[in-house]
Input
Amino acid sequence: MSLNARVTAVAVLTLFTITAYVLLRLLFSPQTVLTPAQPTAISQNTTDPTSAASVSGSRIDSEPGGGIDVSGDPFIDEPSTDPQLEDLPPTPQTAPPVVLLQGLPIEGVPTASVDQGSQPLEYTLQDGYKVFNLTAQPVAWEILDGVQVTAWAYNGMIPGPLIRVTEGDNVRVNLTNALPEPTTIHWQARDIPLDQQGIPEMTQSPIEPGDTFTYEFTASAAGSYSYYSFTNRTVQVALGLFGAFIVDPAEPDEPAPAVDIPIMLSEWRVTGSLTFPAASVGGAEPNYYTINGKSYPDTAPINVQVGDRVRLRIYGMSAFSHPLHLQGASFTVVGIDGIALAENRRYITDTVVIHQGGQIDIEFTPTQTGIMLLKCNIGLHTINNFGLEEGGLVLQMNVSERE
Output
């Protein structure tokens, strides 16, 4: 047999073997049984799976209707019965089980008593401390006219109330947990003592439902900061447990801006009457994007005058990055991640990318009357529920003549 004939025979035999293997897999492998198409995310089991405001789920396994059944597959080895392996101690369960979230129903959840988030939180003075009170609780929150979500919120608002203090202040925050599962608060700020960082099982025990925990620290560094849940973050932060924490400098080196507000970006997955913690995984992608808890056209407009200095403190509280563009003007980036930039480090642009967990301060001065828009440059992030009309991450600024 010639060399060419031998090569041809080997190729034909190889092709036949591969084809036979594929056919056997199709004939003898069972149907893959997947969990019903629900948005998915990684979470821990809640302490009260029967609560209307709790997250329920089922484990990924071979139970009916869930997981992947590989029993009887001739191409998958059976578990080993080696006696030496059977004598080994079981592997300890150190990680929480992965569950499929089934959504939070709106029924039975109290409606929020306010319609705008980031409202300034009042404080009292006690023993040289500015004392603030927060409650983490489920609420029905309207993100858009006719669209409510089941949210977990601080003091019943999304974002949570604005906590604003001055550099050098002693701060005390009492957090009461009215959720169906444990929680904590992490302060994303500089020079916070380690034992006040809110990391469960490391710096503190989780705050159980019905309990109150007190955080105490000195706000020693000025900047644009945030606070948010550090327990079961994939669920709790996505459902609204976040807020702005601003520390003003003790000695400002310039006059205060005419407008100075936090802009917190987040998103939601809503299907019928169920709310899912949105995430960047298959089936849990958001269908609503919000600025300060609202989707356009229900985002709260900003009213300014020509010549006003406007400062926006922008926070990425979502699982996505957003290229924000200011239409009709440029702006100066004056701070990044809570740290003010020196004059020679500031820069002018009209678009800035806000990453997950990132924070950027921008300033600009309108020079003409009319309507300016701050919006995300990603088209899917500027519509509601995959519709055609403008929505989502769009913020309107109305500029009028100076009085």
User: Anything to note?
Assistant: The chain has a mean pLDDT of 83. The domain at 124-400 is CATH 2.60.40.420 (Immunoglobulin-like).
